[in-house]
Amino acid sequence: MILDNTAWAEFYEKFRTRLINGLSGSYCFADREDAVEFAFDKLMHRKDVKAYGDKYPQSEKDWLCHLYWQARSFLSHIKSRSDRHAKYVETMSKELEDAFISGRQGIALDSEIRSEALVKALEIFKAEQDISRRDLNVFVLRERIQMPSKEIAARYNLTVGNVDVIKHRIGKILRKYGPDCYLRALRRAA
């Protein structure tokens, strides 16, 4: 069953709402809606027929199943990205814990304030230390997200050795100047 644009449009009208409502209620409506839009876009425009192999959908039910699992995959990606961000914010906050001195002790700061302060601190750090966005991205991907050096090197057209040198250099500078940048950013965020 190969779908042309007209068939996809009919399929979209028929199953869009059903797919959105069939996804986990633990995600907000907007995320579920985005997931379904992504699934339709991927299967309509980006997934090659050859990628299905011998599992090419033969019926409406098969297509619905493929769309559902594509949408679930998208939601899973959103959750893992959100979890990684929360872990990153928590880790950086703990590393820069000494920034909570003088007047900040005992005050519970929510993750939103810490997250805003962290972003501002990195901007301050980048500007004051004349660090390029690329080098800062390389550091974050390697050090915090734990992406392999080889993948980062391919993404930024660097050698694996360059990635490791950038990670080490930025880490050393960040340990020295980061806490002060974070303290200043935290004052601005509060």
Task: Give the topology.
Blueprint lengths: L4 H18 L6 H18 L13 H36 L15 H18 L4 H12 L4 H8 L3 H30 L1
Helix pairs in contact: 1-2, 1-3, 2-3, 3-4, 4-7, 5-7, 6-7
Structure description:
- The chain has 190 residues and is mostly helical.
- The chain contains seven helices and no strands.
- The chain has helices at residues 5-22, 29-46, 60-95, 111-128, 133-144, 149-156, 160-189.
- Helix 1 (5-22) runs antiparallel to helix 2.
- It is elongated and about 60 Å long.
- The model is unreliable at 99-107 (pLDDT under 50).
Task: Please outline what is shown here.
By secondary structure, this protein is mostly helical. 74% of the residues lie in helices and 0% in strands.
Unreliable segments of 5+ consecutive residues: 99-107
Distance between the termini: 58 Å
How much of the sequence lies in strands comes to under 5%
Give the number of DSSP strands.
0
Mean pLDDT rating? 79
Radius of gyration: 23 Å
Indicate the structural class: mainly alpha
Largest sheet: none
**What's the SSE pattern?**
HHHHHHH
Overall spatial form: elongated
Number of helices: 7
Helix content: over 70%
Any descriptors?
0% strand, 190 residues, elongated, mainly alpha
